[in-house]
Design a protein that fits this description.
homodimer, 17 helices, eight-stranded mixed sheet, 18% strand, Rossmann fold, BirA Bifunctional Protein, domain 2, 462 residues
């Protein structure tokens, strides 16, 4: 640490964060931690296990795995040992490297979650950050459709509980499901398999440019005939209820083994999740979603909040055939999804679903009288042992000043004890929300139960 | 993601981590998460609030704050926008920058915790890692000794609960306390204040080289007289019970206001923590600890596990006068400490205090019969709603193979349901630890309560 001895006064360094990076103050961090805790709990509930990997990887691990764009956005440098290294830009590439490296130890199937930061030197316009958090979960080493079912259930359970205001509120959202097998089956059936990338790229623009221009683009970039393009579009725009859409697709794909497998996968997901008690209307069969063109090979998920679909998908993922092909000959099929924490948070704030608080505890003890300091310390310790978090103000400032601090932070209850209260072994319990107050016994057991009841029911103002 | 279409076979990239970096597999990560959860809970219980800062900072923020050594160990580079940046090497420097930058918003006093990774390009011999985790908590904006008391209590509560085997085991440890005011007072009294760094540096070698050579070094490097050196040593080696040591120091420091303030601080910490119910023998007044020579100005803490003191201090900290002097003219006094998670973990493993498990849930449902898959999915969902985490095997492999998987991962209970059990609406509940089994009703309410009782009491083998 800097020495203060015998040093000339230095010019102050401006305290600032890098462009595209940000600090999180308690008001922002407390709800983030709450959400992270809920997400973690859900992943764990299904037997997904935590792993962690280094922030820095050998450059060769990271390069060429993403798109040209992620390559360009990579934070890369030469370390002091002369190694070319980079900061991870997602959690999938490190997981692929990890799986190949530790395959013998982890076995198959393997279910992991990983909540961690990633870095991309993106253009910082439009609320994009260069450091953000991903919350991934994946099941690898199995092609079973029941891992698809489970992935759908985990997405449901996570997103259902992102409203941070209360313990019991549920968000309204839709999970769009698709299978790459359906369009791949359709392409196979009409003989366009070798031009799938161009076809799908055109299809991805459907919402933006409309059916006719998509057909034009398919004809141009994939040399498709009008009939071929229209037939793909018919599959991609199958509408109606989930059952009706799947029935229509099934008919269009008659004879295509792959395509019909995709239909069967989606049916299994819809049936099993309904049996498990998830409302049927939560899922929308939507052949128009075609995520991560080249990577996914089966089921695909995207998730939208009902009230702000324009936010984009807050939880996306899908099935892949081969996770770690760059690092091992062992084929590792799997399925996974990722919650976009930062995008989701932007949405929750817009919806008023983030309660602002700058404290982690409900109870505040002002240091009303310096001579009673050890009394306060002891009382606070007793309450903490009863599971009640307590903050004790460290200085005997004026009570009004201390209560102003308490109010600003958002404590709910204050326990005020002066010499008189101390002598009589009582506590003046203030409800900081209503302004009500009550003199209660300072005996820990009864005080703790009184605090619990005031926290849940409030105290009438006087 | 990499396309598999029309690409020539590429040479495999060796999956490896950088020297000094490591992956955490579930067996390592599950107990780490458990410890992090406990630490966080303790910090929060006292009203410390979470913050977060970017991994990357402007280089000027990081340089010159640490020692020459941390400067040398810094991961630094020029980003694609031409900015000189570095990865944080501790959480104190970012906190200092953060405090100066957001002072108006956070107010004073301000209590924060920050659990995050830091990076140092250290020599990787002797089990040192280049990426490790720090768990800091600090109270700034007050010089009150009751923040010192609270820091002592937090250290106690955290370290008390690091035994990860059970919910109720308590570790045996000692918190060594000192105050820099004591030695500074002694130096002041004998007129050596201007040579404190050299004197303290010599003193820090006491255990290694003995009293006589420390005296020699003080004479050489600080131009101290024999008497001055001996008088400092007398203070630094005051022994006996805490009370006896403090009484002796008090006598030696007679007339030094600063020194006596240090004695009073330590007495307040000992008294208040004892009143709050912390065993007196947990604290050791130890004037020989002189952490972070130039940075600390008051109370200092170091914490040692009784069974492996040679591990070194696992939780250290102290009081400082001015946190953010490089970034703001506003003086920010405070006190804080940091739990060294990686060092602690090495100790816990040595002591057998880390239970190995590769699963986050206790209950395993094998997919015994593929035709019953949705039945299993539904049962698992029902149990999860009752708060019981469940993993469902995704494929209908041979039962023996699935139970081997369950055994390797460490599940405690398996629920086996074949066609016969399903028809009769019962479950074969297996205790995977004892080998015992029992046929029970598949009705969720009663099954959940049966699982709870088997998990806590076990099931006799048959």
């Amino acid at each position: 640490m800097a020495t203060s001895e015998n040093q000339p006064k230095k010019k102050l360094i401006e305290p600032r964060t890098l462009k595209g990076f940000r600090d999180f103050l308690p008001e922002a961090m407390i709800p983030r931690e709450r959400l992270i805790e809920r997400v973690t709990k859900t992943y764990r509930n299904y037997g997904f296990c935590p792993i962690d990997t280094p922030v820095l990887e050998y450059l060769e691990i990271l390069l060429g795995k993403g798109s040209d764009e992620t390559d360009k956005q990579l934070y890369r440098f030469k370390d002091s040992g002369g190694r070319e290294v980079g900061m991870r830009f997602d959690l999938t590439v490190p997981f692929a490297r990890f799986s190949a490296q530790h395959l013998a130890e982890i076995g198959q199937p393997f279910k992991r979650y990983h909540l961690a930061k990633v870095w991309r030197g993106e253009n910082t316009q439009a609320g994009r950050y260069r450091e953000f958090m991903q919350c991934d979960f994946d099941t690898i080493g199995t092609t079973s459709v029941f891992s698809d079912v489970e992935t759908a259930m985990v997405i449901n359970d996570v997103v259902e509980r992102v409203d941070l205001r209360t313990e019991d509120s549920f968000t309204k959202f839709k999970i769009h499901v698709n299978s790459r097998k359906i369009l791949n089956g359709a392409l196979e059936k009409i003989g366009l398999s070798d031009r799938s990338t161009a076809v799908l790229r055109a299809l991805d623009k459907l919402a933006k440019i409309g059916a006719d221009r998509v057909v034009e683009e398919m004809k141009e970039t994939a040399s498709a005939t009008e009939e071929q393009a229209r037939s793909i579009l018919a599959v991609a725009t199958a509408e109606g209820s989930n059952e009706a859409a799947l029935a229509r697709i099934e008919k269009l794909l008659e004879g295509s083994e792959l395509g019909l497998e995709g239909v069967a996968d989606l049916r299994q997901i819809l049936d099993s999740t309904a049996s498990a008690g998830i409302p049927k209307e939560r899922f929308v069969v939507d052949v128009s979603i075609a995520r991560g063109l080249d990577y996914y090979t089966g089921t695909i998920f995207e998730t939208f909040l009902d009230e702000i679909p324009q936010l984009g998908s807050i939880c996306s993922g899908g099935r892949y055939d081969n996770l770690a092909e760059l690092y091992t000959k062992q084929k590792l099929p799997g399925i996974g999804a990722s919650l976009g924490l930062d995008r989701l948070f932007a949405g929750l704030e817009e919806l008023g679903m983030v309660e602002k608080t700058a404290t982690t505890v409900d109870v505040f003890i002002p240091m009303f009288d310096a001579s009673l300091a050890t009394r306060y310390v002891t009382l606070a310790a007793g309450l903490r042992r009863k599971g009640i978090g307590v903050e004790l103000y460290p200085e005997a400032k004026k009570l009004g000043q201390q209560l102003k601090y308490a109010d600003k932070k958002g404590f709910k209850v204050a326990l005020v004890i002066g010499l008189d209260e101390s002598a009589r072994d009582v506590v003046n319990l203030k409800d900081l929300r209503s302004g009500g107050q009550l003199e209660v016994s300072a005996e820990i057991e009864s005080l703790a139960s009184k605090i619990h009841s005031v926290l849940s029911d409030g105290l009438d103002p006087q």
